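seq:
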Amino acid sequence: MFLAIATEGLSALRIYMRKMLKAGMKRKVITVSMHGAQALLGYMVMIATMTFSIEMLLSVIFGIGIGYSLFFDDTSSSHVSTNPCCAFIDEEESKENLENTPGVETATD
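struct:
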């Protein structure tokens, strides 16, 4: 359970650090390192749930719920996902919503 809580906490910390630090090599090194640590924790949680122990599965689900409730507030407009694929999709949807908003100009890739 504590591993799942730590995964959610690290996710929140990584997003906070990315917002607070100025763009540059220091921010990149910190966020890349934290992303790697979050991926490691996520895979460890996955391995724990794949033991086919219902107690372990419920503990992980309970821990993820507790971690999410501790580290993320509902006043933020951004959705946080522990799955990098889903996070990418959410970022793309946000970008598309900005592009479709009248009067908002965005940089193109």
